[in-house]
Amino acid sequence: MPLNQTQTLAKFAADLTFDQIPADIVERTKFCIIDTVAACTFGSELPWSKMIIKHATTTGRDGKSSIFGPEGYRVQPAMAALSNGALSHSFELDNLRMPSVGMHPGAIMVPSAMAMGQELGSSGKDIITAFTCGIEVLNRIGNACKQSCEELGFHAPGINGGFGGSITAGKLMGLDAEHLTNGLGIAGSLSSGLLEFAKSGTGGMVKRLHLGRAAESGIFAATLARDGFTGPNTVLEGTFGFINVYARDAKAEELTKELGERWDAQFIVFKRYSAHITSHTPIQGILDMKAEHGFTGDDVASIVIEGNEKIVSHHDIPEPTDVMLGQYSTQFCTALALFKDPLDPRNFSEESVNDPKIREVCRNTTLKELPQDRRFEYAYGSVLHVTLKDGRTISHDAPAFKGLPTGPFSLDDLREKYMKLAYRLGDKEAARLFDRLCDIEKIDDVSKIDFTGKS
Fold it and tell me: Structure pTM?
């Protein structure tokens, strides 16, 4: 009997070997691992992160899996995945995928892979292979849905991430195609994450939790599948399967399209700003305009930003009530770039949220959908119209930013971001860990990695 689409994805993951992965994809995966560790290390000191770490260290003690950060906590795999998934997304610094399909590869696959890999004593090559399996499966699920789940009010990486996590963890466990299929079937019933925080103006912490729960769900689903627990083998394409329940006008053919031919790590995007990805071109545009025209935030009377429909439907938040909602607000992120350096994540602070000058610009910033015939290649490209207090209006196209596949990070760019985020380790320790992760494919047992950088 021919395999269905869910089974085909599981068989691909079961059969993939490290030697089949192109060298450039291996390199991109290593960048993703390093970037995720950096985001987690920075995020580990934040109040909402500490709450999750407290839960993990209380309920998951006596494990081998690291919570990334200078404290050096080791816990059970599921609790490490929960923590690192949440930490990686704790300050809008984690990587994602463009064109967007609603997935965050680093925040899902790296925590799942490293947590299970440290528990099992897996090699660096095993980690890269498992990550590749996870991203190839998860991308195709996202592509089939095309983020339409977010139109329904779901937070895409929270509801789809468990699939990638279960494949990643299950691959490291050595599960065969049948057991990986069951892992997917189980993960489908663990999907969760609502976007109400964006409309409510309260409870922004849950956005960070969505990524942690997805990574944790991946470990949970794979572990149950290993022990014989079953799930529907049509969980993705079935009548009441994932793409038909959580999406509109899903395209099932995308689930297995170009499987083993198109490698998805090439589409990973790395952030420089601690802001939702929809705000990156407005931030870049403001920085470019300031440099070219010499104005300051005090000179600005009002701003009009034209961009993707999503900035209007999801990110029109002129009065953010806390930092997390500020990072989700296009108005706030743009206004902050007028007065402070957006490359320093510490400037995305309560002080900035309450800064009267920034708040005034927020209130005087209007978001509009960019007409279809003026769209850029990058979906979140934007056009800015800045009106100055002297009466002049200056317009500027902001089609892209550094970190996209069309303008990728170099190793030096990655190191610069990493060292900025990993400062709590100390410069010497941070550099030691960076170099170790650059050669992760040479490590025979990832449980030996000290994520404090001390050894």
Answer: 0.94
